[in-house]
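Structure (tokenized):
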């Protein structure tokens, strides 16, 4: 049996994260490995999918689920017959809890609305499990320069009963504020949804998607290929929004991650 002894290096960025963050893992082998020897790894019990960026460069964007236990996690990277062990520290983080009082009809949905919301949640889920070729290019950028009004991970308790975790981040934005694509990709959804109102989803490849909600207007069409920084729509307050703002969500392999951690990544 032939031995495939590829020497390789592993780069981890950043070396410390908090739950909800995304990190980058890069494997550089000393020669082009056979496809059977492409690197594999696992983080927090989940397989890491590497993407062949160039001949001997493999990259993976890895989500740290908000429920990941804070500790030093071991990542074993294997390529060919060799393995390397690296450690990533998941630091504890206390997400804010907010108590909100709303009219009861805004908290409890009627049967029709509930049906629609559930149907749309299923539709969104089907997109986020897709894994297409990399379309993003370099660092991610913020969709608008307006201030952030609500950060990622805030736990909301509505009328003392229903709780929800804020799965994205909100930017202030008067109706008509131009919204930019955070990176290059393709529009996979352009629709009017119950919670999100006018919503766009951009597939950036490698299982990474950005989601833009409550828009007043769309400036792109479905299936359109778009470039980083392109104006894709205008902020508004369509759907379940109490005022005009942009809700930006980032999904990585079906998991909500903090858009800020993606913007900070030196890609
Ligand atoms: Zn939001």
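Design, position by position:
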């Amino acid at each position: 049996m032939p031995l495939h002894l590829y020497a390789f290096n592993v780069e981890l960025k950043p070396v410390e994260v908090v739950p909800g963050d995304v990190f980058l893992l890069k494997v550089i082998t000393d020669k082009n490995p056979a496809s059977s020897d492409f690197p594999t790894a696992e983080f927090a019990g989940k397989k890491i999918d590497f993407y062949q960026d160039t001949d001997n460069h493999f990259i993976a964007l890895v989500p740290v689920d908000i429920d990941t236990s804070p500790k030093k996690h071991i990542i074993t990277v294997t390529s060919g017959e060799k393995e390397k062990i690296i450690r990533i520290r998941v630091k504890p983080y206390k997400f804010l809890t907010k108590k909100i009082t709303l009219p009861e009809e805004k908290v409890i949905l009627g049967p029709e609305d509930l049906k629609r919301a559930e149907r749309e949640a299923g539709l969104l889920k089907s997109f986020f499990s897709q894994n297409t070729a990399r379309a993003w290019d370099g660092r991610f950028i913020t969709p608008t320069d307006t201030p952030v009004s609500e950060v990622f991970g805030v736990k909301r308790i509505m009328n003392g009963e229903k709780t929800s975790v804020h799965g994205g981040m909100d930017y202030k934005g008067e109706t008509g504020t131009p919204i930019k694509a955070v990176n290059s990709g393709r529009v996979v959804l352009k629709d009017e949804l119950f919670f999100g109102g006018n919503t766009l989803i951009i597939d950036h490849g490698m299982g990474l998607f950005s989601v833009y909600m409550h828009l007043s207007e769309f400036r792109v069409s479905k299936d359109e290929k778009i470039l980083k920084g392109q104006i894709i729509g205008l902020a508004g307050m369509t759907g379940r929004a109490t005022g005009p703002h942009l809700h930006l969500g980032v999904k990585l392999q079906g998991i909500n991650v903090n858009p800020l951690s993606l913007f900070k990544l030196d890609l």
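Reviewer-requested clarification: Residues 111-128 form the longest helix (18 residues). The pocket of zinc ion is lined by residues 150, 166, 168, 170, 247 (CB under 6 Å).
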